[in-house]
């Protein structure tokens, strides 16, 4: 038996790491969804867009009578840019 400590002794088992990773990804996704909803709501209040919501895994914005379909990440950036140009 060795007196050298196991380098992995302080780390949880692989299944626990995978569970933690999945939980963190879900939390990050929830934060993004909240951020996206808040930005879109601000844009509606400022009359920069008419409507917003998810459609087929994409985020849909109605602006100037045209539908804009973006990934959630692209929609966050789009809305941030839109709101910043109106300030």
Notes on the protein architecture:
The protein is of the alpha+beta class and 87 residues long. 54% of the residues lie in helices and 18% in strands. It has one domain. The radius of gyration is 21 Å and the shape is elongated.
Helicity range of the residues? 40-55%
The biggest sheet, with number of strands, parallel, antiparallel or mixed sense and barrel status, is: 3 strands, antiparallel
- How many domains? The number is 1
What's the total helix number? 2
What is the string of helix and strand elements?
Answer: HEEEH
Radius of gyration (CA) equals 21 Å
How many β-strands, per DSSP?
Answer: 3
Termini separation comes to: 68 Å
- What structural class do helix, strand and pairing data support? alpha+beta
For the biggest β-sheet, the strand order reads 1-2-3
Portion of residues in beta strands equals: 15-25%
The whole-number mean of residue pLDDT values reads 86
Q: Which stretches of 5+ consecutive residues score pLDDT under 50?
A: none
- Which shape, going by the Cα principal axes? elongated
């Amino acid at each position: 038996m060795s007196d050298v400590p196991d380098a992995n002794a302080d780390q949880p088992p692989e299944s626990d790491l995978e569970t933690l990773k999945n939980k963190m990804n879900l939390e990050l996704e929830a934060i993004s969804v909240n951020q996206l909803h808040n930005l879109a709501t601000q844009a509606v209040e400022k009359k920069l867009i008419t409507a917003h919501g998810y459609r087929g895994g994409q985020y849909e914005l109605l602006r100037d009578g045209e539908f804009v379909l973006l990934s959630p990440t692209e929609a966050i950036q789009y809305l941030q840019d839109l709101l910043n140009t109106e300030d």
